[in-house]
Every structure is written in structure tokens, then in C-alpha cells.
Amino acid sequence: MLTLHRRHLSGCPHRDKGWNYTLCACPVWLDGILPTGQRITRSLHTTDWQRGQHRLGVVEQGGEEGYPLSDLPALTLAAAVKAFLSDGRARKLREGTLAVYGTLFAHLLKFCGAGCTLSMIDTAALDRFRSQRATVPPHKTEPQPLRASTQCKEIGLLRAFFHWCIDRAWIVKNPASRLRLPRVTEIATLPYTNAEVIELIGACDRISSDDPAETAYIRQRARALVYVLLYSGLRISDVTQLRRAAFDRTISGKAHLTLRIMKTGVPLKVLLHADAAKALESLPATDPTYFFWTGRGDPITCTKNLRRTVTRLGALAGVRARPHRFRDTFAVELLTNGADIRTVQLLLGHESVRTTERHYAHFVAAHQSRLDAAAATLDFQPEARRPLLVKPLKHRLRNA
To answer: Would you kindly state where each structural domain of the chain is located, as residue ranges?
Structure first.
């Protein structure tokens, strides 16, 4: 016969009421005789009475006797990943974000195996996964180790996933929380220079297509793409599904582009440069709803095609061109011109201003001014001055 009781702590106000008092939060212990006739008295490593009763049932049924007595479901990693991605779609996560998660999970599932459960994954297993994680960059055939910045991003994704699993009581600890972040030496924010922007715009007139009849459209689309990325700060995935209804001109002739609808229901718009507005207006309508996507097929495929367009423009211009560098250029140019960082946060769509500060705070114009003002107060070699006499010397008073 097995029974539960509270082993009251020294500071418990109900300690004098005995073990049968169970309404406090002291540890739950197990006491009694097992079906095998063995006497057992030990902690169940919980203060929750219902969990203690569940663990008591595990022992009575001949289950695991040593700690931990797992009352968590033996959910497979594949099932947890499927549920996580389904929840992400229900929460309206961006397709690009879900695609990044999907790529990481595909590598993790391949490493762990089909029958792996969540409880089998610990920090050591994730360390081994990270050490063998590699990627094949564009125009390469051999796998290359991940960059430090990519490793940091993937560790953040793993931490978010396992934290989500903890919230659903599928696991107790986050195995990714103790992964050490690598040291990042590469420059995370690399805006284009004015000369590079001019070269990229000029390359739009030199890009071509395998079909000569499509060359004119390809050049128009490339120019519109560069201008929208440069003057809106949108991500390449957002540009893919940019709707024609998001563009409008006022009576005064100013053009605005709706970036997103805020939680208050008010549209957030950005004033477009005249060249960007002209490039969008002159872009042939392959679809009545979207500027760049045909509305057919997978938008991720369209995003990949737009990325390749930027890469090709960079090759023609002799510039290391990446779509996200346009977003960096947009933010840095605003900040160096004196824009408030919270304004930039709104335009970029960051949920927290801390994200904006982490990437762009060192470009704030007032930031450098404060640093210069603080450093200007330092003077380790002051000019020599005649010391001030507090009291006149006695012999000078006598000679006066």
C-alpha cells in the first residue's frame, strides 16, 4: 500500500498539523510497500499534489521507480515540429519566417532520426547537431560551415521552439538555453554607399533575359524592385506580395506606399521618392492585384527569383548586393539624417525598439554627438597655473 504525504519544511506555518495536512506547498513524498514487498520512502520531486498522485500511479503500475518519474507525454520531435508550424500559421507568422523554421527543423529531424522524442534531446545532442551543421552557399558545391551570425540566429530559433514546447508541458527544461553563442566578428549591418546605389540603379538597364522579348520587362521590374527596396525599407518577402492597392497618389501629386496595417487599424504609410513612384506606375501589370507576383504558384518561388535579380544586378555593378542591405541602407540613412529611432522602428516594423537599437543605434546622429561631448571633457595635461596662496608668508608681512 502506497500513500502520499507532505514533508513540511522548517518554515512551513502548518508544520505542527502533521503529514496528513496537504493544503500547503511543501514537497510531496511517497511512503509504503511496493507490490514486490520492498519498503519505499522517498521524495517525488514535486510540490504539486495532482502530479504527485500521477507519479504514485506510475509506481503502483510497476513503472519507473527512480527519479524522474516522467508524467510528460512521449511526443516525437516530428509531431512537435508539425504542431509548432501549424500554430505559427494560425498566428499569421510571415511565410519567410516559417520557411526559415522549416529549413532548420528539416536538418534537425534528419540528425535526430524519425523515432526521436522531445525528451531525448538535451544540450549535448544540440551541441553535436550544431557542430555538424553546414550549408551549401550559392555557386558552391561543397558544404561550408555556417557563419557565426547564422549560428546565433538558429540558436535563437531553437530556444523559441523548445520554450513553446515547455508552455505546452511537453518538456520540463529548454535544452537550447545553455547553448553558447559563437563570437560574431562579421559586420551585421552593411548599408550601401551612394556610389554603390548609383551603380545598382545603372545595372538595371543592362540586365537581360534568355528571351529577348522579355528583356524590356525584366529591366523595368529590376528598376522598380531596386527603388521599392531602397525607399520603403520593406523585406524582399514583403515586396513579393506588394499589392497595387497599397500604392496611392494624393491630389497634390505625392505618392505613398502602405507598409502595413497597425494593431489600431490605422495604415502605416511611407512617402515614396518620385523615381520609385514612377518606376512602380510604369511597371506592366502581369497581375491586377500584385506588382511583382503573378498571383499563381508559391510566393516563396517568386521571392527567390527576386533575390536572384538582386544578385545579378550586383554582379553587373561590381557590388556585393543582398536584398537586406537595402533595408539597412533605408534605416541608416534615416538615422544619420536625424530621424528618431522610434520612427525608424515603426517604418521597419520591429515589434520592439530594442531590435532597432541592437542593429542601428550606433548610426544615430545624436549618439555620436553625445560620445564626442563626453570625450571632450577629458584633459590629462592641463595648463600649468600659479598656485593660489591661502595665507601670506610671515616674512613677507614683516617686510611690508
So the answer is: 2-60, 77-167, 194-372
Tell me which of 1.10.10.10, 3.90.1150.10, 1.10.443.10, 3.30.450.40 is the CATH number of domain 194-372.
1.10.443.10
Residue 153 CB-half CA count within 13 A: 11
CA distances from 150 to 192, 300, 331, 338 (A): 21, 20, 21, 31
| pLDDT tens digits, 75-116 | 789 999 999 999 999 988 878 788 899 999 999 999 888 778
Please provide the size of the chain in residues.
400
Give Cα separations from 292 to 44, 146, 312, 349 (angstroms).
61, 31, 17, 21
Report helix, strand or coil for 207: coil
Cβ atoms of residues 88 and 98 within 8 Å: yes
What is the distance between the alpha carbons of residues 289 and 295, in angstroms, rounded to a whole number?
8
C-alpha cell at 39: 519498503
* Strand-pair partners of 2: 32
Rounded Cα–Cα distance for residues 214 and 208 (Å): 8
Distance CA 123, CA 175 (A): 5
How far apart (Å, rounded) are the C-alpha atoms in residues 337 and 189?
Answer: 17
193: its cell numbers:
554607399
**Residue with cell string 516522467:** 70
pTM listed for this prediction = 0.62
DSSP string, 66-109: SSP---S---BHHHHHHHHHHHHHHTT--HHHHHHHHHHHHHHH
CA distance 140 to 231: 32
- Structural contact between residues 174 and 159, judged by C-beta atoms closer than 8 angstroms: yes
36, three cell numbers = 514486490
